[in-house]
Design brief:
The chain has helices at 47-54, 77-87, 103-112, 120-132, 148-160, 178-195, 206-209; strands spanning 4-15, 21-32, 36-41, 62-67, 70-71, 88-92, 166-170, 198-202, 214-219, 222-228. It is an alpha/beta fold. The structure holds adenosine-5'-diphosphate (ADP) and magnesium ion. The site of magnesium ion has 3 residues, from helix 1. Residues 15, 23, 41, 43-49 line the site of adenosine-5'-diphosphate.
Amino acid sequence: MADVLIRTAGITKDYGNKVKTRVLFGIDLEFCAGEFTVMLGASGSGKSTLLNILGALDRSTEGDVFVNNTNLNSLDDDGLALFRNQTMGFIFQSHFLLPQFTVLENVLIPHMIYADRVNPTIEKRALELLDMVGISHRRDNRANAISGGEQQRAAIARALINRPRIILADEPTGNLDTANTEKVFSLLQSINREFKTTFIMVTHNSELAQRSDRYLVMSDGRILEDKYLNVKCLE
Ligand SMILES: Nc1ncnc2c1ncn2[C@@H]1O[C@H](COP(=O)(O)OP(=O)(O)O)[C@@H](O)[C@H]1O
Ligand SMILES: [Mg+2]
């Protein structure tokens, strides 16, 4: 396939030192640029473990992950951190905003990690992102002084600040009510369409899976089902 952005080859993951427990059993997957994939599966089936390996937050025990033709195993920890910062955006069930900072400052944090200062261009981008997620009026509020739905939207703006090609989202609507789930999911879909960002999103909501390009079902560390609803890969 011409536009495979992420490819895994035989990924396994063992936890534990003396007693090893295998939680991923040889995962082979390809994700094309611009694809919106939903990952379903029971608790404990290995979804977060796989997502963390795809996002270079954790390393596999065996097997390789190639992102944009870079083998993540070829990078040392600093290289991995830089690669992650430039290529990946993360959204988790818990927003992980820093409560003592404002919404705007939180959005700028992934930029600040490798930049020495905030220039007007990046601040303008942060404000545009806050506008896009509908909370620009909250820019100067502390992150712990806004609602849960607003916090998750701030986390989405933060995930976008470095223009990542890939966004990994681990149960991003897991703490939200139905109305906020709809807002957040629609927002992720519009980001996918507008910026061609590749998404891999874990959820327990099978209705959202039906609205994606593809869904995977994990069971006991294996891919049980891999179904395309809308093929975006070039043959
Ligand atoms: N850091 C860890 N140490 C040991 N076992 C872990 C660790 N993280 C996850 N596991 C185990 O790995 C399995 C898969 O977990 P996880 O990837 O979190 O599943 P899911 O996200 O699908 O709920 C579970 O049995 C879990 O208990
Ligand atoms: Mg999980």
